[in-house]
Model the fold of this input.
Amino acid sequence: MNSLFPESLRNQLYHSGVIAVLILDRVDDAVPVAQALLAGGVNCIELTLRTHVAFDCLKQIRREVPEMTVGVGTILTPQQAEQAKEAGASFGVAPGMNPKVVAEAARIGLPFAPGVCTPTDIELAIAEGCHVFKFFPSEPCGGLPYLRTIAAPFLHLGVQFIPLGGLNAKNAEIYLQEPSVLALGGSWLAPKDLIVNQNWKKIEALAASIQHTLQRVRR
Done:
């Protein structure tokens, strides 16, 4: 259905249920964070390109925690899409819908989810061959009621969404119950203060908590 997001990857992300969104300032933190998340049952990560060490972190995790599926987020340029592919990213994500970035992702075979927050964004993305979207920023845009409204005209096309922005352990369950939600972007799973303090046990506990929710909702 969607050359930019293979069905096998869709299924994998659906069963994963949550993608831990990470902002890492130190390469040395990459593997311990990934190991803590995996120990808690979270097996998918989005490494954001908000720091200069993101690609090095990606390579470290792929080498030392091969069970983890690792994507790259905050892809803003075609060149970054190329770098993500070369570094071994399993998928790419963007905060917005940039046709040039989507076209490059398609050219190089990088599974890609552009960011959307309006019906126009969705139409533009569908025109470029996309059917999986990052819904961002989710809660500030209106949350699940708003997502239901803008998604309704397109659901017959098989579109799915990865909400991110304002999600947390309290509202995760209601999002996961929504049929159009593929997975959640979970920035609350490994917040910066826990990473700085190397509190890997707390990160593991947060991951285990969302896994309990997933087992209840998507078993």
